[in-house]
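Re: that chain you flagged

S.,

Sorry for the slow reply, it's been a week of failed gels. I finally had a moment to sit down with the sequence you sent. For the record, here it is as I used it:
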Amino acid sequence: MTRILIVEDSAPFRQSLRDLLANRFPLMEVGEAENGKQAFQEIHAAIPDLIFMDIRLPGQSGLELCRRIKSDYPHIILVILTSHDLPEYRQAARGCGANHFLSKSTSSEEVVRLIESIIC
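Prediction finished late last night. Pasting the structure tokens below so you have them in one place:
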């Protein structure tokens, strides 16, 4: 079973992504965290295959968290999410070890295609 973790401080965005995943991938296990501390609790409880993570999180940036996760769990596929699709953010995400970078305005179909390309 594929396990995904959504690390996002916006509850409505987390719920929207969770709903998309539940509808398109009903057998997938989906966890949630709203900050870095919760993310590591979730990761330690059940290591995910894929993490969707906001670039801006309370307490610790998504980029710092990405670097830490990739250091401890290099096999986890990490997708950085942002409302600001800027070249410097993409470069910073790659520098921290992110595997993919998505704008939060990316269509549901594009998100589904990305997931399918990763898990299939």
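What I noticed first: Strands lie at 3-7, 29-33, 50-54, 77-82, 100-103.

Talk soon,
D.
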